Structure formats: C-alpha cells, structure tokens
Amino acid sequence: MAGLEISPAFLPSVLHNFQILMDQAALIVDRPIDAIVEPAPVYRP
Amino acid sequence: MTRLDHPIDFAGIATIARAVREGRLSAVRLIESRLERIERMNPQLNAFTRILADRARREADKVDVMVREGRDPGPLAGIPFGVKDNYDVAGLVTTAGSIINLDRPAAIDDAVLLQRLTAAGAVLIGTQNMDEYAYGFTTENAHYGATRNPLDIARSAGGSSGGSAASVAAGLCEFALGTDTNGSIRVPSSFCGIFGLKPTFGRLPRTGTFPFVHELDHLGPFARTVADLALVYDIVQGFDAGDAACDDRAKEPASATLDTPWAGSAALLDGWFDAKADAQGRAAAAGVALALGATATASLPDARSARAAAFVMTSASGGNLHFESLKSRAADFDPATRDRLLAGALLPANAVLQAQRFRALFRDQLLALFRHHDLLVAPATPCAAPLLGQPTIDVEGQALPTRANIGLLTQPLSFVGVPIVTVPVAGATMPIGVQLIAPPWREDLALQAAAFLEREGVVRAPGGQLW
Fold this sequence. Notes:
The complex is a heterodimer of chains A (about 45) and B (about 475). Chain A is mainly alpha-helical and about 45 residues long. Chain A has one helix at about 10-25. Chain B is of the alpha+beta class. Chain B has an eleven-stranded mixed sheet, sandwiched between helices. In chain B, β2 (about 80-85), α4 (about 110-120) and β3 (about 125-130) form a beta-alpha-beta unit.
C-alpha cells in the first residue's frame, strides 16, 4: 500500500487508526473553501 | 495518592540570577544543588534522559569566572535549565524520544534557542523525556520509560514535553524548553501545574530541533512563575534564517509590561471548549474568565472540524517525515507511534490538502472573535492528570481513549498558530491548566493577563521552600 509493506502483525492496529483518521477527515472534506486558499503557504523560493 | 517529598525553590529566575551576578551565590554551587536534586529525584520521575553534569559544571564555572573578573554573565547567570529530547545539543544525538534516531550523527551545534540562552548565562543541565517523535500526550515512551508527575507519581506528567514540565514542577531546574504541535507544552503544563507558553507560529526559530509537523511545530518555555516565563521568552526571541517559517520581525519583549493592570476584554470560549472539559476544567476556566472581568462567552462553531484537520495533518505529515523508517525499521518504533504514522502515510491527498486549506477558514473565525475581545479563555485539558496507563478518560459521559483525546482542547488552537499561555489552577487533588489565547503576535497580552491572575492568587504553581 502506497509503497509500504505493512507487517500483518501491525495491520489491525494500522487499519483501526486509519479508520479513525478517515472519520476525522470526513468532518472537513466536504467543506467548501474558496479556490484561492493555498494549502501550505510557508514555502518561499 | 503517592507523593514525592520535594522542596521547590521559588526565588524566581531574576532573583537567583541577580545573586549570581552580584557574587552572592556561586553558579557552580547552584548547579551542584540541582544535580544533587536530579540524582535524588530523577530515578523516580524519569524526567531527564541525559544529565550533562560535565558541561553544566564547565559553563557554571565560566559564569563564576566572569563575575570574579567583573564581567556581566547575562540576565540568566547560572540559571539551570533543560531541553526536550528533540533539541540539538552539540555532541549528542538528537533522539526525539526514538531509538531510530540513534543512528543519526551527533549534533554539531546547539539549537538556536539553546545558543541564545547560553549566551545569556543560563546553564544546560540535561535533556528531557518525551513521547516518541512528539506524537503523544502522556510521555509514556516505550524506549525510555514513562515520566511521572511530581505532584503524584502515579499520574502522567502529560506530553509530549512531559520530562520538561515535570523537571520544572519538581524544581530540578528553573525552566525548560519544550515543543508544541498539538498541545505538547499546554498539556504537560496543565497536568504538572506550571506555566507554559506556546508563542505565535513563526515567532521562535526552530533551527536545530527535530521536526514533527513542519506546519504546526512551535517551540516554547515552561516555568514556575509568569515573570520567569516572560524573561525566558524575551531572551529567546529573534529571527533566524534557518527556519523557513520564522517571521522576520523585531523582538517584542513582554517582561516590561507584566505589572500593567489588566484592563483588556476577555471572553470564555463556549461550545466545544465547554462540552469537552470536565467539571474541574470548566470551573477553572470560568474562574479565570471571571477574574479577568469577562462578561461574555464566545463561540468557535468549527472547533470540532479544526481539531479534525489538525489530527489529519499531523498523521499525514508525520507519516511522510518518517516514511523511510516506516518502510525499513517499523519494528523499532514505539508501537503507539508506529501504527498512527503508518495510517497517516496512507491518507488520501484530498483529505490532507483540505485540512491544510481549512486552516484559513478557521483562522478567520478566530480573528473575528478578536475584533471584540483581547483575550479568549478555555480549559487546557479535558481533565486533570490521569493515572499512568489509564486507558480511557471520561468526556461528555463517554469513555474515550486517553492518549488520542487529551489534546481535544489544545489542537484546534495551535492549528491556527495563535499565542497561548497556560496557567495553573489548583484543584482538590490535582491542578488543571487554563489557556489564555491572544491574537497573533500578542504574547504580551496573554502574559500580562497571566501575571495579573498570579498577583490576584487565581493561578499559581505548587509552592515550596526557598533555597
């Protein structure tokens, strides 16, 4: 998954945490935000 | 309850440093007293991970020599302090609470903040325990052990800067530096009953510290009095080009205005910040708000979403930062850290980018409140210090996992980078912290309010005998 090989021993806990994250993400992904708002404005060339 | 029998020095940094500068107190003698105390108490507290006795004695001796030669060693002359294990200390590996980092080379230089403190005469006496890679709120570290709360050693000192807060609360050093990404200065301040400052994002340069979440990481001090906190904050301020997020602005010292009577407008945050706190936290915040003359409450209706966005950004950014180690050395992580980082590395880009963009929206909500109020008040933690190993805490009648939910009240606020001072309010058994939240770049306002509350006896760190 995504370049990671996750040990079967870790997988149940990883999936549990992933579900928690997706539940949190669900609270924000549908929020309309102005298209001009940048995601990460710190970078300076 | 298990309590340590410990004396705590309350002379204050300025008074102790004055005694050293005037030759009335030897810096070496001062350091020896703290080293003796660390030797006696640290085996039980596990606050310090590395005690730098040789360096401390060497630096203290330099201070004493300067005094004897009539030179001024600086405003922090001889003052012992510690730093969290994610600050670079020349000659040491910056572990960040991990064993994976032990393969990294030793730091060549001290972190910039540490350099500034040393130049002001302060003496580093050691590095302090933390949650692995700062990803936790309890400092229960699988590699280096749990840090115990000096007010009750059966309880958590909070995290992730738990070793730093416990050291200060126990009088092992006069102040300490920690980091705060989601609450890692404010949570341990709350649990250990001391003062903590999370400055504005971009105020203090993070140069020479090991990152957790670049876009959320803050550095800041812990102390036992507001005057001590402000003094250290004033000394570490200033731009450094080594941190891309550091704002190039002039120093704005806060110590000089601490005695100004509080005349600002404060409001108590309701909604999320009321619902997620227990009765002790709500009462503490209400008492602080009342003492500051608050007559209104204020709402941040998107606090829940802000916390969610911070949660997502943290996991994703941490998962990205440690991706190579997660691939090659997953078994070497603290399991509690590893499984969350692995989950974060799997997050879809849409969720991460949306979380980042949501910051602008929530920041505007918060700035709108500051058009009507100078300061906002909220509990720092959902409860006072839980027992070490306690699996759940009670939040709104629900048993929620302890480690994931202690930051419920801190995460939405650090998410948008405003400055916050955590002040300690005594409780029947354990203290609890209250957040004083100021507009961006107005650390002085939060510190001024904290000093007023301290003078009025509303907030205070645990007392003890003078040295």
